[in-house]
Amino acid sequence: MPTLVYVEDHEGELVKGSLGVLAKAAKLDDDVVAVLCGAGVEGLAEEVGRHGAGRVFVADDPALEAPLPQPRVDVLAKLVESEGFDTVLFGASVLTADVAAGLAGRLDAGLNWDLVDLERQNGKLVGKRPALQDTVIVDVGWKSEPRLALIRSGTFEPSEAGGSAEVTKVPVEIQDWSKQATMVEQAHEESQGPSIEEAEVIVAGGRGLGGPENFTLVEELAKALGGAVGATRAVVDAGWYPYSTQVGQTGKTVSPKLYVACGISGAIQHKVGMQSSGVIVAINKDPNAPIFEFADLGVVGDVHEIVPKLTELVRARKGG
Ligand SMILES: Cc1cc2nc3c(=O)[nH]c(=O)nc-3n(C[C@H](O)[C@H](O)[C@H](O)COP(=O)(O)OP(=O)(O)OC[C@H]3O[C@@H](n4cnc5c(N)ncnc54)[C@H](O)[C@@H]3O)c2cc1C
Questions:
Q1: Tens of pLDDT, residues 116-135
Q2: Binding site membership of 230 for ligand 1 (Cβ less than 6 Å)
Q3: Count of alpha carbons within 13 Å of 231, Cβ hemisphere only?
Q4: CA separation for the pair 174, 207 (Å, rounded)
Q5: Is ligand 1 within 6 A of the CB of residue 276?
Q6: Residue 193, class by beta-carbon neighbours within 10 Å (0-12 exposed, 13-18 middle, 19+ buried)?
Q7: Cβ neighbour number for residue 161 with a 10 Å cutoff
Q8: Residue 118: closest CA among 155, 80, 144
Q9: Cβ distance 307 to 290 under 8 Å?
Q10: Is 0.90 surpassed by the pTM of this model?
Q11: What is the mean pLDDT of residues 26-39?
Q12: Which residue CA neighbors atom 8 of ligand 1 most closely?
Protein backbone atom coordinates (compact mmCIF):
# COMPACT_ATOMS: atom_id res chain seq x y z
CA MET A 1 0.00 0.00 0.00
CA PRO A 2 1.34 3.44 -0.79
CA THR A 3 2.34 6.08 1.70
CA LEU A 4 0.32 9.27 2.01
CA VAL A 5 2.16 12.54 2.71
CA TYR A 6 0.18 15.50 3.97
CA VAL A 7 1.51 18.55 2.13
CA GLU A 8 0.78 21.74 4.02
CA ASP A 9 0.31 25.11 2.37
CA HIS A 10 0.56 28.53 3.91
CA GLU A 11 -0.76 31.63 2.17
CA GLY A 12 -0.59 30.06 -1.26
CA GLU A 13 2.83 28.48 -0.85
CA LEU A 14 3.81 24.93 -0.05
CA VAL A 15 5.52 24.50 3.30
CA LYS A 16 9.17 23.48 2.88
CA GLY A 17 9.08 20.98 5.77
CA SER A 18 6.29 18.94 4.21
CA LEU A 19 8.01 18.95 0.80
CA GLY A 20 11.10 17.61 2.58
CA VAL A 21 9.02 14.75 4.00
CA LEU A 22 7.68 14.08 0.51
CA ALA A 23 11.25 13.87 -0.84
CA LYS A 24 12.18 11.38 1.88
CA ALA A 25 9.04 9.28 1.28
CA ALA A 26 9.85 9.17 -2.45
CA LYS A 27 13.31 7.80 -1.60
CA LEU A 28 11.80 5.05 0.55
CA ASP A 29 8.98 3.98 -1.78
CA ASP A 30 8.26 4.20 -5.49
CA ASP A 31 4.60 4.91 -4.98
CA VAL A 32 4.12 8.09 -2.96
CA VAL A 33 0.84 9.92 -2.81
CA ALA A 34 0.33 13.44 -1.48
CA VAL A 35 -2.75 15.22 -0.22
CA LEU A 36 -3.41 18.96 -0.27
CA CYS A 37 -6.17 20.39 1.94
CA GLY A 38 -7.25 24.00 1.75
CA ALA A 39 -9.15 26.64 -0.16
CA GLY A 40 -7.78 27.55 -3.59
CA VAL A 41 -5.02 24.95 -3.40
CA GLU A 42 -5.72 23.05 -6.62
CA GLY A 43 -3.14 25.14 -8.49
CA LEU A 44 -0.41 23.86 -6.14
CA ALA A 45 -0.85 20.21 -7.14
CA GLU A 46 1.52 20.47 -10.09
CA GLU A 47 4.31 21.73 -7.83
CA VAL A 48 3.67 18.84 -5.45
CA GLY A 49 4.11 16.48 -8.42
CA ARG A 50 7.45 18.06 -9.25
CA HIS A 51 8.53 17.35 -5.66
CA GLY A 52 8.13 13.60 -5.83
CA ALA A 53 4.44 12.63 -5.59
CA GLY A 54 3.12 10.28 -8.26
CA ARG A 55 -0.45 11.09 -7.35
CA VAL A 56 -1.94 14.10 -5.58
CA PHE A 57 -5.35 14.15 -3.91
CA VAL A 58 -6.74 17.66 -3.68
CA ALA A 59 -9.36 18.64 -1.12
CA ASP A 60 -10.17 22.18 -2.20
CA ASP A 61 -13.09 23.75 -0.39
CA PRO A 62 -13.91 27.03 1.39
CA ALA A 63 -14.58 24.94 4.53
CA LEU A 64 -10.84 24.25 4.62
CA GLU A 65 -9.75 27.87 4.36
CA ALA A 66 -8.95 28.43 8.04
CA PRO A 67 -5.94 26.47 9.30
CA LEU A 68 -8.05 24.36 11.68
CA PRO A 69 -7.37 20.69 12.30
CA GLN A 70 -10.76 18.92 12.56
CA PRO A 71 -12.01 19.55 8.99
CA ARG A 72 -8.67 18.21 7.75
CA VAL A 73 -9.02 15.16 9.98
CA ASP A 74 -12.40 14.49 8.31
CA VAL A 75 -10.81 14.62 4.84
CA LEU A 76 -7.81 12.49 5.76
CA ALA A 77 -9.76 9.86 7.71
CA LYS A 78 -12.02 9.28 4.72
CA LEU A 79 -9.14 9.16 2.29
CA VAL A 80 -7.11 6.71 4.39
CA GLU A 81 -10.14 4.43 4.78
CA SER A 82 -11.23 4.54 1.15
CA GLU A 83 -7.76 4.25 -0.42
CA GLY A 84 -6.24 1.97 2.21
CA PHE A 85 -3.03 3.92 2.89
CA ASP A 86 -0.90 2.09 5.42
CA THR A 87 1.29 5.07 6.35
CA VAL A 88 0.59 8.79 6.71
CA LEU A 89 3.50 11.22 7.13
CA PHE A 90 3.44 14.84 8.26
CA GLY A 91 6.13 17.51 8.50
CA ALA A 92 5.62 18.87 12.01
CA SER A 93 4.02 22.29 12.43
CA VAL A 94 1.50 23.86 14.77
CA LEU A 95 -1.32 22.75 12.46
CA THR A 96 -0.10 19.26 11.54
CA ALA A 97 0.59 18.35 15.18
CA ASP A 98 -3.14 18.75 15.81
CA VAL A 99 -4.17 17.11 12.53
CA ALA A 100 -1.97 14.06 13.16
CA ALA A 101 -3.16 13.70 16.75
CA GLY A 102 -6.81 14.05 15.65
CA LEU A 103 -6.34 11.49 12.90
CA ALA A 104 -4.68 9.05 15.30
CA GLY A 105 -7.69 9.36 17.59
CA ARG A 106 -10.20 9.01 14.75
CA LEU A 107 -8.54 5.95 13.19
CA ASP A 108 -7.32 4.43 16.45
CA ALA A 109 -3.85 4.51 14.91
CA GLY A 110 -0.37 4.78 16.41
CA LEU A 111 1.44 8.11 16.03
CA ASN A 112 5.19 8.50 16.40
CA TRP A 113 6.26 12.13 16.65
CA ASP A 114 9.45 14.17 16.64
CA LEU A 115 11.11 11.77 14.20
CA VAL A 116 14.42 12.84 12.64
CA ASP A 117 14.71 10.00 10.15
CA LEU A 118 12.85 7.09 8.57
CA GLU A 119 14.24 3.92 7.10
CA ARG A 120 13.21 0.48 5.95
CA GLN A 121 14.66 -2.41 7.95
CA ASN A 122 13.89 -5.69 6.17
CA GLY A 123 11.01 -3.95 4.46
CA LYS A 124 9.59 -2.66 7.73
CA LEU A 125 9.25 1.08 8.32
CA VAL A 126 11.31 2.27 11.29
CA GLY A 127 11.40 5.80 12.70
CA LYS A 128 14.37 7.44 14.41
CA ARG A 129 13.53 9.54 17.42
CA PRO A 130 15.86 11.52 19.70
CA ALA A 131 15.47 10.69 23.39
CA LEU A 132 17.02 11.59 26.75
CA GLN A 133 17.25 15.27 25.84
CA ASP A 134 18.48 14.42 22.36
CA THR A 135 21.55 12.57 23.57
CA VAL A 136 20.55 9.24 21.98
CA ILE A 137 18.53 8.23 18.92
CA VAL A 138 16.09 5.36 19.38
CA ASP A 139 14.31 3.21 16.80
CA VAL A 140 10.53 3.39 16.99
CA GLY A 141 7.90 1.35 15.19
CA TRP A 142 4.16 0.81 14.97
CA LYS A 143 2.07 -2.14 16.14
CA SER A 144 -0.70 -1.65 13.60
CA GLU A 145 -1.73 0.16 10.46
CA PRO A 146 -2.14 2.89 9.50
CA ARG A 147 1.16 4.16 10.85
CA LEU A 148 1.21 7.89 11.48
CA ALA A 149 4.37 9.96 11.88
CA LEU A 150 5.27 13.57 12.52
CA ILE A 151 8.73 14.52 11.31
CA ARG A 152 10.67 17.28 13.07
CA SER A 153 10.56 20.47 11.05
CA GLY A 154 13.56 21.13 8.84
CA THR A 155 14.74 17.49 8.96
CA PHE A 156 14.62 16.72 5.24
CA GLU A 157 15.41 18.96 2.30
CA PRO A 158 12.84 19.14 -0.51
CA SER A 159 13.93 17.78 -3.86
CA GLU A 160 12.43 19.04 -7.09
CA ALA A 161 12.84 16.03 -9.36
CA GLY A 162 10.56 17.49 -12.02
CA GLY A 163 7.94 14.72 -12.33
CA SER A 164 4.26 15.25 -12.87
CA ALA A 165 1.46 13.83 -10.77
CA GLU A 166 -1.97 12.44 -11.50
CA VAL A 167 -4.36 14.82 -9.74
CA THR A 168 -7.62 13.62 -8.18
CA LYS A 169 -10.18 15.91 -6.58
CA VAL A 170 -11.56 14.70 -3.26
CA PRO A 171 -15.16 15.45 -2.23
CA VAL A 172 -15.11 17.42 1.02
CA GLU A 173 -17.67 16.42 3.66
CA ILE A 174 -17.18 18.05 7.02
CA GLN A 175 -18.80 16.57 10.12
CA ASP A 176 -20.98 18.87 12.23
CA TRP A 177 -18.70 18.58 15.23
CA SER A 178 -15.74 19.62 13.10
CA LYS A 179 -17.43 22.92 12.37
CA GLN A 180 -17.66 23.89 16.03
CA ALA A 181 -14.29 25.63 16.11
CA THR A 182 -14.01 28.72 13.96
CA MET A 183 -11.11 31.04 13.43
CA VAL A 184 -11.81 34.42 14.95
CA GLU A 185 -8.62 36.23 14.05
CA GLN A 186 -5.21 35.52 12.62
CA ALA A 187 -2.38 37.85 13.57
CA HIS A 188 0.96 38.06 11.83
CA GLU A 189 4.18 38.85 13.56
CA GLU A 190 5.90 41.77 11.87
CA SER A 191 9.21 40.58 10.50
CA GLN A 192 11.67 41.47 7.83
CA GLY A 193 13.81 39.18 5.69
CA PRO A 194 13.48 35.40 5.33
CA SER A 195 11.91 33.26 8.05
CA ILE A 196 14.26 31.18 10.15
CA GLU A 197 12.83 27.92 8.76
CA GLU A 198 13.37 28.92 5.15
CA ALA A 199 16.58 30.96 5.40
CA GLU A 200 19.73 29.78 3.65
CA VAL A 201 21.82 31.81 6.11
CA ILE A 202 21.18 32.14 9.84
CA VAL A 203 23.16 34.35 12.18
CA ALA A 204 22.37 33.34 15.74
CA GLY A 205 23.13 35.12 18.99
CA GLY A 206 23.70 33.75 22.48
CA ARG A 207 24.36 35.01 25.97
CA GLY A 208 27.88 36.01 24.89
CA LEU A 209 26.37 39.09 23.25
CA GLY A 210 26.07 40.50 26.75
CA GLY A 211 22.61 42.07 26.49
CA PRO A 212 19.53 42.47 24.28
CA GLU A 213 20.80 45.76 22.82
CA ASN A 214 23.73 43.90 21.25
CA PHE A 215 21.44 41.80 19.07
CA THR A 216 21.79 44.66 16.57
CA LEU A 217 25.26 43.20 15.81
CA VAL A 218 23.67 39.91 14.81
CA GLU A 219 20.85 41.62 12.93
CA GLU A 220 23.28 43.72 10.90
CA LEU A 221 25.35 40.70 9.91
CA ALA A 222 22.21 38.73 9.03
CA LYS A 223 21.01 41.63 6.89
CA ALA A 224 24.34 41.91 5.10
CA LEU A 225 24.26 38.17 4.35
CA GLY A 226 20.57 38.19 3.39
CA GLY A 227 19.79 35.80 6.23
CA ALA A 228 17.58 35.41 9.29
CA VAL A 229 18.35 35.84 13.00
CA GLY A 230 18.32 32.92 15.42
CA ALA A 231 18.80 32.76 19.18
CA THR A 232 19.54 30.36 22.01
CA ARG A 233 17.04 29.44 24.67
CA ALA A 234 19.11 31.24 27.30
CA VAL A 235 18.56 34.57 25.55
CA VAL A 236 14.89 34.07 24.67
CA ASP A 237 14.20 32.98 28.25
CA ALA A 238 15.93 36.17 29.38
CA GLY A 239 13.59 38.16 27.14
CA TRP A 240 16.40 39.40 24.86
CA TYR A 241 14.83 38.07 21.68
CA PRO A 242 11.48 36.52 20.59
CA TYR A 243 10.74 32.85 21.25
CA SER A 244 9.97 32.34 17.55
CA THR A 245 13.71 32.60 16.83
CA GLN A 246 14.83 29.90 19.29
CA VAL A 247 16.90 27.16 17.70
CA GLY A 248 17.27 23.81 19.42
CA GLN A 249 15.58 20.92 21.12
CA THR A 250 12.66 22.96 22.41
CA GLY A 251 12.87 25.48 19.58
CA LYS A 252 13.22 25.09 15.84
CA THR A 253 15.31 22.64 13.86
CA VAL A 254 17.05 24.45 11.04
CA SER A 255 19.39 23.43 8.25
CA PRO A 256 20.62 26.53 6.44
CA LYS A 257 23.62 26.48 4.14
CA LEU A 258 25.47 28.75 6.59
CA TYR A 259 24.98 29.07 10.37
CA VAL A 260 26.98 31.74 12.18
CA ALA A 261 26.89 31.27 15.96
CA CYS A 262 27.84 34.42 17.89
CA GLY A 263 28.55 34.06 21.61
CA ILE A 264 26.90 30.64 21.79
CA SER A 265 28.44 27.90 23.95
CA GLY A 266 27.10 25.00 21.84
CA ALA A 267 25.07 23.10 24.45
CA ILE A 268 23.67 19.77 23.21
CA GLN A 269 20.12 21.16 23.26
CA HIS A 270 21.18 23.95 20.90
CA LYS A 271 23.34 21.68 18.76
CA VAL A 272 20.49 19.30 17.90
CA GLY A 273 18.57 22.14 16.29
CA MET A 274 21.34 23.32 13.96
CA GLN A 275 23.87 20.52 13.52
CA SER A 276 22.67 19.66 10.01
CA SER A 277 23.58 23.15 8.74
CA GLY A 278 25.90 23.14 5.71
CA VAL A 279 28.74 25.21 7.20
CA ILE A 280 28.87 26.18 10.87
CA VAL A 281 30.94 29.21 11.85
CA ALA A 282 31.40 29.92 15.56
CA ILE A 283 32.64 33.11 17.19
CA ASN A 284 33.37 32.65 20.89
CA LYS A 285 35.97 34.11 23.23
CA ASP A 286 36.48 30.80 25.04
CA PRO A 287 38.71 28.44 23.00
CA ASN A 288 37.30 25.51 24.98
CA ALA A 289 33.64 26.27 24.19
CA PRO A 290 31.87 23.05 23.08
CA ILE A 291 30.70 24.71 19.86
CA PHE A 292 34.25 24.51 18.48
CA GLU A 293 33.98 20.69 18.60
CA PHE A 294 31.42 20.70 15.79
CA ALA A 295 31.98 24.04 14.03
CA ASP A 296 33.55 23.93 10.57
CA LEU A 297 35.24 27.26 11.18
CA GLY A 298 35.99 28.78 14.58
CA VAL A 299 37.01 32.31 15.49
CA VAL A 300 38.30 32.74 19.05
CA GLY A 301 37.54 36.32 19.93
CA ASP A 302 35.11 38.88 21.25
CA VAL A 303 31.81 39.09 19.34
CA HIS A 304 31.78 42.85 19.83
CA GLU A 305 34.98 43.15 17.82
CA ILE A 306 34.62 40.32 15.30
CA VAL A 307 30.96 40.62 14.27
CA PRO A 308 31.01 44.31 13.19
CA LYS A 309 34.23 43.68 11.22
CA LEU A 310 32.68 40.68 9.54
CA THR A 311 29.58 42.72 8.65
CA GLU A 312 31.79 45.43 7.18
CA LEU A 313 33.71 42.90 5.10
CA VAL A 314 30.53 41.25 3.81
CA ARG A 315 29.08 44.65 2.86
CA ALA A 316 32.30 45.65 1.12
CA ARG A 317 32.46 42.35 -0.77
CA LYS A 318 28.81 42.60 -1.81
CA GLY A 319 29.16 46.25 -2.79
CA GLY A 320 32.31 45.52 -4.79
C1 LIG B 1 15.26 20.40 28.44
C2 LIG B 1 16.12 21.51 27.90
C3 LIG B 1 15.82 22.02 26.64
C4 LIG B 1 16.61 23.04 26.10
N5 LIG B 1 16.32 23.52 24.86
C6 LIG B 1 17.15 24.42 24.30
C7 LIG B 1 16.94 24.89 22.96
O8 LIG B 1 15.97 24.52 22.29
N9 LIG B 1 17.81 25.78 22.46
C10 LIG B 1 18.90 26.25 23.16
O11 LIG B 1 19.65 27.07 22.61
N12 LIG B 1 19.10 25.85 24.41
C13 LIG B 1 18.26 24.97 25.01
N14 LIG B 1 18.46 24.60 26.30
C15 LIG B 1 19.47 25.35 27.09
C16 LIG B 1 20.89 24.90 26.84
O17 LIG B 1 21.20 23.83 27.71
C18 LIG B 1 21.89 26.06 27.12
O19 LIG B 1 21.68 26.53 28.43
C20 LIG B 1 21.76 27.24 26.15
O21 LIG B 1 21.78 26.78 24.81
C22 LIG B 1 22.94 28.17 26.38
O23 LIG B 1 22.75 29.34 25.64
P24 LIG B 1 23.99 30.27 25.26
O25 LIG B 1 24.94 29.50 24.43
O26 LIG B 1 23.40 31.52 24.70
O27 LIG B 1 24.59 30.67 26.68
P28 LIG B 1 25.87 30.16 27.46
O29 LIG B 1 25.88 28.68 27.60
O30 LIG B 1 25.94 30.97 28.68
O31 LIG B 1 27.08 30.52 26.48
C32 LIG B 1 27.51 31.82 26.21
C33 LIG B 1 28.82 31.69 25.42
O34 LIG B 1 29.22 32.97 25.01
C35 LIG B 1 30.64 33.06 25.14
N36 LIG B 1 30.94 34.48 25.32
C37 LIG B 1 30.75 35.28 26.41
N38 LIG B 1 31.11 36.55 26.15
C39 LIG B 1 31.55 36.55 24.87
C40 LIG B 1 32.06 37.57 24.02
N41 LIG B 1 32.14 38.85 24.43
N42 LIG B 1 32.45 37.24 22.75
C43 LIG B 1 32.36 35.95 22.31
N44 LIG B 1 31.89 34.95 23.09
C45 LIG B 1 31.46 35.25 24.34
C46 LIG B 1 30.98 32.22 26.33
O47 LIG B 1 32.33 31.76 26.24
C48 LIG B 1 29.96 31.08 26.21
O49 LIG B 1 30.51 29.99 25.49
C50 LIG B 1 17.69 23.59 26.85
C51 LIG B 1 17.98 23.06 28.12
C52 LIG B 1 17.20 22.04 28.63
C53 LIG B 1 17.55 21.49 29.98
A1: 999 999 999 999 998 876 67
A2: no
A3: 23
A4: 49
A5: no
A6: middle
A7: 11
A8: 155
A9: no
A10: no
A11: 94
A12: 248
